[in-house]
Amino acid sequence: MEEILFSPKSHITFMFTGQGCCFPKMGLGLYNSEPIFKEWIDRIDGILKSKYYGFSMFEKMNSIDEKNKSELNNQHLSHSSLFMFEVSLCKLLNYYGLHPNLIIGISLGEIASAFCSGMIDLETACYLTYHRAFSIEKTINGDSTLIIVAISENEFLKHFYPRYPTIEIASNLTSSSLLLGGKNEDFIPLYQELKEKKIFFAQTSLPTSFHTSSMEPIKNDIIQLTINNQSPKITHLSSVNCKFFNIYDNPFNSTYLFNNIRNQVSLAPTVKTMCNYFDQMNYYDYYHHKNIVIEISPHDALFQHVQRTIDSIQNFQSKKNTFFFAPLSKGKNEVITLKKMILKINSLN
């Protein structure tokens, strides 16, 4: 497929997903078929191999048995694999003519997004990926977890938190669903109550309770890291504080990186800020500009949460011209699904 030239009336957003969407052999189809994707995988894998691990993380990911996914709980493997995948997918989409006007990173995805927006260089991004993984490995002891539950933040704080004070909000996924974190034993009575009240919940496969107080012990590890940073070359929205990055009052530094690990992911508020940004950008022409949001991920992990939030926003003037795409889906041919997405986006122009 040749490079596609997209209309200047298309505002393109890349949203880099966080951890939890990795799986064995992810990216292998693109690696074997797309030279740009392969070039960036090899480049990043080479840095990680020579400076940190002594072996190929890409080969390690591809060697995992589909029936034995417990190895994905290793933070070095999951961090490295997702980082190199996201950067390589971003560069491949750039090659096909998709250049973002706005970038958003979710949790671990903020390292890849920080590189792709120009806030940090590749060496720094690899350094942070390694050290973030090294620190988080210390928090994995088998006694904490994360669950998705279909209740609002207000409902949780009013009706559940007073009786379950050790369970924390790790992310407000939508206006009616949360990611909760805490110790396994503390969740047992909550599970029973949710079942009795017929409230949907599901345990995730993540091995520790990210974005909760369980990350406090690694604060000093992260704060002491040295980050050479600058203001982004592409507008970049934080999913921690819902502010736009800049070198002066919202820089991507070591304090921010710890907040990225410790603080809850404000997914729904970030999506609302994004939609407000679209309305501001399209102020004089709501109906002709297209807002194209693309999930940078090996699997459609954010799609339903983001789409539900967009659908729920009242007075979003650009709603009818906002389109969310997840280019890849686990179990489907990566090359075919990616190029189908590109053709669909091109048909919008």
UniProtKB/TrEMBL annotation:
UniProt superkingdom: Eukaryota
Q: Which UniProt keywords apply?
A: Phosphopantetheine, Phosphoprotein, Transferase
Q: Does the keyword Electron transport apply?
A: no
Q: Does the keyword tRNA processing apply?
A: no
Q: Which GO terms describe its molecular function?
A: transferase activity
Q: Do you know which Gene3D superfamilies this protein is assigned to?
A: Malonyl-Coenzyme A Acyl Carrier Protein, domain 2
Q: Which residues form the Malonyl-CoA:ACP transacylase (MAT) domain?
A: 15-332
Q: What is the protein name stated in its UniProt record?
A: Malonyl-CoA:ACP transacylase (MAT) domain-containing protein
User: Lineage of this protein's species?
Assistant: Eukaryota, Amoebozoa, Evosea, Eumycetozoa, Dictyostelia
